[in-house]
Amino acid sequence: DQSGNANGNPAVAGGSCPNTALVSNFSIVAGGGGAGGAGAPGDPSNTANGGQPGSNGSVVITPLSPALGLVKSAPVPALQVGQNSSYVLTLTNSATTPAFTATIRDQLPANLSYVSGVGSNWSCSNTGGLVSCNFTGGTIAASGGTTTVTITVTPTSTASATNFAAVDPTGGPTPPTPTTCTAQNAPSAGCAAPVTSNVGRAVGGTVYNDSNHNGNLDAGESGPGVATLFVKLAPSSGGGCSGPAIAAAAVDSATGAYSLPNVAVGSYCLILDNNATLADVTAGLPAGRIGTQNPSGVIQITVAGVPVPPQNFGLYNGSILAGTVFADTGVGSGTPNNGIKDGGEVGLAGVTVNAQQGGSVLASTSTAGDGSYILWLTASVAGAVSITPTAPSVFLATGGSAGTTAGSYARPSVSYTPVAGQIYTGVNFGLVPPNTLAPNGAQTASPGTSVVYAHNFQAGSGGQVSFSLGNAASPASPAWSQVLYLDSNCNGVIDVSEVAISAPLSVSAGQSLCLIVKQFVPAGAPVGGQNIVTLSAAFSYTNAPAPALASNQTATDITSVSQPGGLTLGKLVSNVTQGGAAALSVNAKAADTLQYTLTAVNNGSQSISAVVISDATPAYTTYLSAACSGPLPAGMTACSVSTQPAASAQGGLQWSFTGSLTPGAQLKVTYLVKVDQ
């Protein structure tokens, strides 16, 4: 037998193992025992001749390992700074024997922050970006069985992210180092092909109804209320937008919000459009809307390492009208009064421009420093609208243009019918400042003598001026006479070469003409008689469109008859604002303050009592104040301003004196006026 004892039986090879055991994932190969000793032939009972012991049997145990392969997915959603994304690791067992354990190592790049690792029978931990996941307590079936673990991360920057992962292919605890894995050695040796992903940023903003058209998203401003509106993301190159677009985000009609997630680093155009067709990279605003913030409907952006701020589009539901209010004076080789801004003509600042229907003002604005203006009219405006500049005081409207409105100009307004979504331009208005003629004069003269009055005419624009004199004498007889001269050298004296004005004179804007009215006092004029001469300047504005445009200015000279050598009255003016000495005439601008000084002198041999000095505010000025100037001479006991206009008005003035003005003594009075704007 196996032991080699003689038992008389034939020796048989192949004994058996006395014990059995269950071993998993192993293969077993048993070897036969050696032959026992042979007994005496034919006599089984004869044990005298024992055989040799048989050899021991053998058992070969070979382990059966699983074959594990690892595949890693791209992150879902695509990586975006600050947003969670997940990788899915799928483990597949291709062996014919199941697996009961597995170990995965996942090496995260520096810009991915670990959040969690989740899977059935999986437990994960993170140490410095190396994620270790262990499978226990379950079975990965043979011949194609799978298990998955989901790794969730948060990107912290826009750097490109390459994720490495590896598994021990035999189910053991020692996977290869993940960063040794390449696309070429996967899936052998337990490597998953590395996954490289771009990390993008969210780009978004608001498309809003800019009700106050200020180009900013303000509290209370909502979405555009348009159902079909999109913002497209397209590559930008050389300042232009290249098609096709990469993505299109719908705009919420109520809130105006839109969002384009996971935008990779680069330069892009954001294009506001009324369709989602990616091949179309031309902006298209909704009907009836005008862009305010980013009005072209295109925003150029760069996505880089910092968050992209909100990218907003403002829309105004209505129309725009724009133009210029200018001084149509013909300066700088321009043509005066033609209603066209040409030559060196400049814009007028601070002019109010109104849009009106009937008596209602729909919109109003003031011109900028260059005379430009913009009016915004809501879509609710229907029917004809009138655009009118409110001219500064005593300015005249010359002409204008209806621009692109398809409307018409009729002095001083443009009429047209607005359509929402339209931008109307070139609606211009020409204005000119007034002509001026000053000052008024008052003197006394003896019968048979003459006096002269100096005046200055200044043209506000180009044109022709015709001067004339009229008079009203009291008493009417004897007749008074007066002549007007052009004081070509402005010296206040009628020189030999200076002749009476008999024909119209052509002038340009800003040109001044010095004039002298010579008043002849008839020899028979009674003491106390008076003649009031009115100097008129009738001005024709050349080139003004029909109807013809004209204006008229006047100045008044009052001559009173006195005894020979009696009371005389002189008048000077000074510009308080600009400074300078008093003179017969001075230059002045709008808003300047002028002081007029009247001086009465008794050139006679007898005292004069009950003296009254009279004057009136010049044209195109408003009254400020009046005063009795300086100490009164001996014999005069009181002075008062007995008549004066209201402040900021126009009218006559009188100063009344109590007492007697002795021979050689003089009286002075003053008053202040402001030149109209």
Assembly type of the chains comes to: single chain
| Alpha-carbon distance between the two ends | 142 Å
Query: Sheet with the most strands?
Result: 8 strands, mixed
Morphology: rod-shaped
Give structural notes:
By secondary structure, this protein is an all-beta fold. It folds into 5 domains: 68-197, Immunoglobulin-like; 201-309, Immunoglobulins (Immunoglobulin-like); 317-432, Sandwich (Immunoglobulin-like), CATH 2.60.40.10; 434-563, Sandwich (Immunoglobulin-like), CATH 2.60.40.10; 564-676, Sandwich (Immunoglobulin-like), CATH 2.60.40. Helices cover 0% and strands 47% of the residues. The strands form 10 sheets. Strands 12, 16, 18, 20, 23, 25, 28 and 29 form an 8-stranded mixed sheet that branches. β26 (408-410) and β27 (413-416) form a beta hairpin. The radius of gyration is 54 Å and the shape is rod-shaped.
Secondary structure elements and their pairing?
Layout: E1 26-31, E2 58-63, E3 68-72, E4 85-93, E5 102-107, E6 112-118, E7 122-127, E8 130-135, E9 145-155, E10 161-167, E11 195-197, E12 201-209, E13 230-237, E14 240-241, E15 247-250, E16 257-263, E17 266-273, E18 289-291, E19 298-303, E20 313-327, E21 352-357, E22 360-366, E23 372-378, E24 385-390, E25 396-402, E26 408-410, E27 413-416, E28 423-424, E29 427-432, E30 436-438, E31 441-445, E32 450-458, E33 463-474, E34 481-486, E35 505-507, E36 512-520, E37 530-540, E38 550-561, E39 567-575, E40 593-602, E41 608-609, E42 612-616, E43 621-629, E44 636-643, E45 652-661, E46 666-675
Parallel strand pairs: 12-20, 20-28, 20-29, 31-38
Antiparallel strand pairs: 1-2, 3-4, 4-9, 5-8, 5-10, 6-9, 7-8, 10-11, 12-16, 13-14, 13-15, 13-17, 17-19, 18-20, 20-23, 21-22, 21-24, 24-27, 25-29, 26-27, 30-32, 32-36, 33-35, 33-37, 34-36, 37-38, 39-40, 40-46, 41-45, 42-45, 43-46, 44-45
